Every structure is written in structure tokens, then in C-alpha cells.
Amino acid sequence: MSENVFEPLRLPGVDGPLAVVDIETTGGSVTRDRITEIGIVEVDAQGVREWSTLINPQMPIPRSIQGLTGISDEMVAEAPLFAQVAKEIVQRLEGKTFIAHNVRFDYGFIRNAFADLGFTLSLDLLCTVKLSRALYPEHKRHGLEAIIQRFGIAADSRHRALADARATYQFLCLAAQDRPAEAVMAAVQVQTRRPSLPPGLDPAILDQLPGGPGVYYFYGENNSLLYVGKSVDIRKRVLSHFTGDRVSAKAMNLCQQIRDIQAAPTTGELSALLLESQEIKQKQPLFNRRLRRLSSLYTLQLEEDEHGVLRPVVVDAREASRSRRMYGLFPSKKKARELLLGVGKTAGLCDHVVVTPAALGNACMSRQLKRCKGLCTGDWSVLHHNTALMDALAEQALKAWPYPGPVVLLERSGEKDSAPYTAFVLDNWCLLHTQKGVGEPDWDELGTTGDEPAVLDRDIYRYLVKVMMKPGKGIRILPLPDSLTPFP
Question: Where are the alpha helices (DSSP H) in 22-94?
């Protein structure tokens, strides 16, 4: 163990002492790997103190990690266990703002190590990667090596805990001198705003939330479901509920009732969107918008009569003809007819076509009121009326299904084929089947979607149109089941 003392830094935006921390580990998994070294630069009214120690991880250090850090199995064989230095670490961190370069990594390992001892660590955090991005947006790289080179920081032992903690502290000092105090304070305060947590919520829950895409659930007393939400970063989104000014009494009321938070990670944003929609419809949380569980949706289609007049017909969306355009998705036939009434008035359409189907030849009510342009009396041609009707409904038109049949939309959480995936079997904007796994999908199982009728959902349709018209990173669209060659 070692300790040195230097002059302190006053960091704008942080009231109280600081602990600049760096650790070395056996790998990148916070649950599987262990700490091999910890270095702390303490900053308080008494000055700046440096302290470090090797830690016996009680597991072999991979050769690649040994080559990177220079820490070998022999070096840590006689080092103390984490439990033997835990008390001293707590004393050095307690009451201080925990600062690290990529703070979630260092804090996650240390907090997990304390959790194994039955102790919950809860500190205010500051990430110098985020601080660098905020203060130096003109630079693309914000890793510690890039910062060391940019500022000319002396670092004699890279990838050793105390040396990296010292370099991080020197970056803080240089940034505080290089940038106006107001800018530093603003960048710091964006990160260090303390969440205003409800009295019945354990703060430790927030640290356990994942940082990737997925769905989160707020629960109240007696495990009652209050709210379901989704995000590409669950933890960041949940924290946003408790930080900053809340804009409505409803939002404040929700936050004060929360007693527990749970999360369901997904492979990507689309999975999160679809899961959120499904969960809200099925579970009807108290604070979500009330989505009716609709057994049927209705749409409008145009049928040509013996005179060539296009007449709108309200049909069940499941029974709609694929050969004709669908206009709108409505929760009831009444809502569909209300839309027809509205467009009929604005476009000068005939009541005998859009209100009550009837033969032409006699003036309709709208014609008598001088709203109908005269299809019923022969003053307007069939061609003009058909064109006006299609123009009036154009905004409601659903996108045509762009494939000849069912497809698989494959979403992966990473770029490699071995990454976790979610596969969605889709046809005519309907979700037929979902499969989750790692590596290669089970194509035989995906080809057997069961006998469940396909149901067109307004929210799912909206999500799928955006994704399928322009697939993003990590998404592939494949035909089913004959060929697994991607569509052009």
C-alpha cells in the first residue's frame, strides 16, 4: 500500500471532498471478474492524498490482462483480499464524490465487491469521460490515453490503478484551469444532480438498473403496477423521472408512489418498443395512457361499383383485401364513418357515396346544402369524384406491405453473429411470432408460427413502418422460409 499528499483542487459544481478512483480487474464482467488493484486520489480540505493497493482476486488473471496491466498472478498471490481492505476503502470513499474515467465500470466493480460482503455502497458519481465530451466537444476521442496525449500529462505506468487515477485527477485540474468556471460547473452539475427519490424507494435499486435498451416497470404499494416505459438506456431514462423539474402534477404524483423498479433488457430499440406496447395493452398500468385491448381494428377500402364509382367500405382489418389499399386503422366502425363524414364535407363528396350508400340521380342532403359538388346530380364527373375521394383519404393510407410474403426481422444486440438476438416473424404489418436467443436463430421453429390469427395493431404498424422502410444498425430483414438471403 502507498500514500502521498499534494495540493487540493476546488472543482466548480462539487461541494465537498472528492475521490478519484481507478481499478484494474481480471476482465470486463462485473459479476464474473474481480478487482486486482485499486488506486484512490482523495481531495479534501486537508489536501490531496494518494493511496493504492494490490488485491488478491482469488482467480487467475488472463495472460492478455497481465500483458496489459503488468499485474501477474505472482504479484497478487500475497496481496490482501478485498474483504481485508474493504473497511479502509469505505473510509476513503465515504462522503466523497466518486470520480473515475468511465465511472460506471469502476464504481460497478467496487459496489459489487461490497455487495458480496453484504454492504450497500451509495455515492454521488462523476464521469470524466462525459466531462471531457461536455468541455471539449471539438475532439472525437475522450479515452484516458487520448486525454493524456492531448494535455501532455505525465503517466509513467499506464493501466496501473494509481497512475491512471492520478492522470484522471490531473485532467480535472487542467480542465478547471483551461475552461471557464461557469462551463465546468454546468458540465459537472448535469451529472451530479441528485435524484429526488420517493421516500419508500431504496436508492440501491437505481444502481442495479441496466444501461442498455429495454422496458422498465414502476411498482407502488402492494406491488401494484403504476407505469411501464421503454428506452435505449433504461437507467438514464429512469433517472430522468427523478431529476430536473417535473412538468406536471401527474408526474410528481407518480414519482412519489414508486416503491420498486424492475427492468426487462431487450436486444434493441425495436424490441423495447414492441414489448412496451404489449405490456401496456395487457397490464393497463395506472399512469400509462389507457390503451384498449382491441379484438378487432377496422379499416376503409374502396370498391368500384357497376358505374365506376369508388365507394368506401368499412371492413375488419383482418379480412381486408391485400390487393386494395387500406385507409386508416380504427377502433370501431363508428370511428371510420366519422372520418368519412369529415373528409366528405371538406372535399365536396356526395352523401350517397360517403354517408349512406345509395343510387345516384337524386340530390343528396349535402348537395341541397351546397357542400356536395354534384356527383349525385351529374354536375361532377365520376372521375373527378373518385380522384377527390382518393386525395381526401391519402393521408390515412397505410403503406403497402413491401414483401411478397412473411419475413423475419432479425435484431441483434451486437455486430457479431454470436450476439443475442430477437427474431420477429412479420406479415402484412402483423407480428406473427417472436423468438429470442443467442447466435444462430432456429429457422425451423420460426417457420412454424402456429394457428393464431394475425392481428394488425396500430402501434406495431407505426413502429414497423419506420424500421422496415429504413432498417437501422443491427437489423436485418430476411425472407421466410425458403431463402435466407437478405433482401436487396
Answer: 63-69, 73-77, 82-93
Delineate the domains of the chain, giving CATH numbers in brackets: 2-192 (3.30.420.10), 204-283 (3.40.1440.10), 298-396 (no CATH), 407-479 (no CATH)
Distance, in Å, from the CA atom of 265 to the CA atom of 214, rounded to the nearest integer, reads 4
pLDDT for residue 457: 80
Q: Is 100 exposed, middle or buried (0-12, 13-18, 19+ CB in 10 A)?
A: buried
Start-to-end Cα distance in the chain: 61
| Cβ burial 462-478 (10 Å sphere, 16+ → b, else e) | ebbeebbeebeebbebb
Residue 480 phi/psi, 5° resolution? Answer: -135, 135
All three cell numbers of 100, joined, read 473515475
- 141: Cα separation from own chain's centroid: 24
CA 423 to chain centre: 18
pLDDT tens digits for range 340-367: 999 999 999 999 999 988 999 899 999 9
DSSP-H helix ranges across 94-194: 103-116, 128-135, 144-151, 161-178, 181-192
Q: Is the dihedral of CA 317, 321, 322, 323 positive or negative?
A: negative
- φ/ψ of 143, rounded to 5, equals -70, 165
The position carrying cell 478487482 is: 35
Answer for the pair 148, 132: CB distance below 8 angstroms, yes or no: no
Looking up cell 368499412, which residue turns up?
314
Angle at 201 between CA 198 and CA 207, to 5 degrees: 115
Find the helix or strand (DSSP H, E) in which 352 lies. helix 351-354
Q: List pLDDT tens digits, range 475-487.
A: 888 887 654 444 4
List C-alpha distances in Å: 73 to 42, 63, 66.
28, 9, 8
Query: What whole-number distance in Å separates Cα of residue 69 and Cα of residue 370?
Result: 85
Q: Is the pTM of this model over 0.70?
A: no
Residue 331 grid coordinates: 377502433
Strand partners, 411: 422, 475
For 357, the grid coordinates are: 350508400
- Distance in angstroms (rounded) separating the CA atoms of residues 38 and 371: 80
Helix/strand number for the chain, H first, E second: 18, 16
Residues of the chain with pLDDT under 50: 1-6, 245-247, 483-488
pLDDT at 392: 94
Question: Which three cell numbers, joined as nine digits, stand for 113?
Answer: 465487491
